[in-house]
Amino acid sequence: MTTATKVALAFVIGAMALGLVSLTAVPAKAASVPYDLYGSLTSGWGLTSTSETNPGPMLSANAGDTVTITLHSTDGLAHKLLIDYNGNGVADPGEPLSAQFTTTTTLTFVANQAGTFQYLCTIHGSAMVGTFTVQGTGTPAPSDNSGTLLIVGIILGVVVVAGVSVLVLRSRN
Question: Bridge-partner residues for 69, per DSSP?
Fold first, then answer.
């Protein structure tokens, strides 16, 4: 085997290896998950001001998502929303907790703990509860790099065709 053939073969093998690397799994893209949550001591929580119940609606996100809950007090009373990861009914370090509100406030956090948790008003306890579920790793969300993979695929195709052409031409000499 000539030196030129060996070089061409090395290019083909390198291109194939690069192709395998470019096809490795792409991590899931975290999403932004918005909710509007309306609360009242006498009615509980709801996704609208007229749908408040106790327990409130089930909220969900995927692990890694940024969750933004816009909280509305429909009774004018003070409320404070807690996502209670350990189920003890009090705010602990690392648990999402809103500021106290009598009108509207926003709570934003990254859903970084998979599982099913209770959310509650820390002021009114069991009168205002619901369920928040964070799905763990699962089906990856669509990624934004499909164009990059297409370009890499085209380049790899060109490199492979060029490498095979060189091999064919060298074998004729």
Answer: 35, 107
Using CB atoms within 10 A of its CB, is residue 20 exposed (0-12), middle (13-18) or buried (19+)?
A: exposed
Q: In Å, how far are 71, 80, 107, 144 from 56, measured between CA atoms?
A: 13, 15, 17, 35
Q: pTM above the 0.70 mark?
A: no
Q: pLDDT tens, 50-104?
A: 999 999 999 999 999 999 999 999 999 999 999 999 999 999 999 999 999 999 9
Distance from C-alpha of 91 to C-alpha of 121, rounded to nearest angstrom:
10
- How many whole angstroms separate alpha carbon 123 and alpha carbon 75? 14
- The CB-based long-range contact list for 52-56 (8 Å cut-off, 24+ gap) reads 54/127, 54/128, 54/129, 55/129, 55/130, 55/131, 56/119, 56/128, 56/129, 56/130
Query: Using one digit for the tens of pLDDT, what is the confidence trace for 15-53?
Result: 555 554 444 444 557 899 999 999 999 999 999 999 999
- Say yes or no: domain 32-135 is CATH 3.30.70.2470: no
